[in-house]
Write a structure and sequence with these properties.
It contains eleven helices and six strands. The chain has helices at residues 2-8, 20-40, 47-50, 66-75, 99-112, 127-155, 158-182, 188-216, 227-260, 270-299, 303-314; strands at 44-45, 52-58, 82-85, 89-94, 121-125, 185-186.
């Protein structure tokens, strides 16, 4: 509690920029693990993307297990039924089935689980629709990235735009890696979650960059701080705001993910909530520990800030903040 209180009052100056090697190493590890998951397991695409048949029927007062439901479909020749249980119903996803088999399976399900055949809903979905959704999602992502580059380049500068884009790609890959390792189904709701976390991550980065722009604009030939020192001080000034915003946003998403999907059986929400939950956490981390250190690395290569770094280093670096001067060679 004492640490949290001091952090909230701004009495602690965390050297985010100076620990850039730690953040780069951590991010590199997470990216490698995420990419390995995508290559080894791949994404568990929902029926909306790969095509298939969805059977939905209500739960009865008689208790049935997931394995019993799965065996019923396997006995009818279904190879890999995916069974999901909600509070009041069952949802079983299968491969594409011929029309002649659908009625047979529908009647068997009605008999085995004591429901009428009319209560067994059957929905056949083709992969074409999912392909259209995927294409539109990629187009939306491309337009979003281009808009970010143009906006940040005009409102701030191109190097800030580059740092923000790298952080966004970092967030997307790690979130996708969590889906790959966890086996969570990727649905259109997941795609919406991915696009949402891009906006959230960008918001966090813009708040930090705006403060950095304000603080570093005062740096001149007589400055007692290097660019990295000034950027680190700006980052600490926005730290509590970033953490508070993230906490307030994460709590309701966590409630949907952990309470809604387990206790209340709101299974359809988990596809969206997992993307938001992971993306918000990773987005907060990247805006503080990836985007800003990368921006500092790029800016300290400029002759103006190299000269300031050399002068501050010659005077003993008493400007406060990060001790990283890292004058780029050549």
């Amino acid at each position: 509690m004492g640490l949290a209180r001091r952090l909230y009052r701004g009495e602690i100056n965390v050297d985010f920029v100076g620990r850039w090697k730690l953040w780069y190493s951590l991010s590199g590890f997470l990216l490698i693990v995420s990419l390995a998951g995508l290559l080894i397991n791949g994404l568990n695409l929902g029926v909306e993307f790969r095509g298939g048949t969805v059977f939905t029927f209500p739960s009865t007062t008689q208790s049935h297990s997931i394995e019993e439901v799965r065996n019923t479909f396997r006995d009818e020749g279904v190879h890999q039924p995916i069974v999901q249980s909600t509070k009041n119903s069952w949802r079983v996803t299968t491969e594409v089935m011929p029309e002649s088999e659908l009625t047979k399976v529908q009647n068997t399900v009605a008999k085995d689980f004591n429901v009428s055949a009319s209560q067994v809903s059957v929905q056949a979905i083709g992969a074409t629709w999912g392909g259209e959704v995927s294409n539109k999602a990629w187009i939306g992502l491309g337009v979003f990235m281009l808009a970010i580059i143009l906006y940040l380049s005009m409102a701030f500068e191109p190097k800030m735009a580059l740092a923000a884009i790298v952080a966004l790609i970092h967030d997307l890959v790690i979130t996708a890696g969590v889906y790959a390792w966890s086996g969570f189904e990727v649905t259109p709701a997941t795609m919406l979650g991915f696009l949402t976390i891009l906006g959230y991550s960008l918001y966090d980065a813009v708040v930090v960059f705006d403060m950095i722009k304000e603080v570093t604009a005062k740096l001149g030939s007589a400055s007692k701080q290097t660019y990295s020192m000034a950027a680190n001080n700006a980052l600490n000034h926005t730290l509590i705001r970033s953490l508070n915003t993230s906490l307030v946003a994460i709590l309701p998403v966590a409630a949907i993910l952990f309470i809604g999907t387990t206790l209340l059986g709101a299974g359809t929400l988990k596809d969206l909530s997992l993307a938001l939950f992971v993306g918000m956490i990773v987005g907060t981390y990247s805006s503080l520990c990836v985007a800003t250190p990368l921006l500092v690395t790029l800016k300290e290569r400029e002759p103006k800030y190299q000269a300031i770094a050399r002068r501050v280093a010659a005077t003993g670096g008493k400007g406060g903040g990060s001790k990283r001067t890292a004058v780029a060679k050549g």
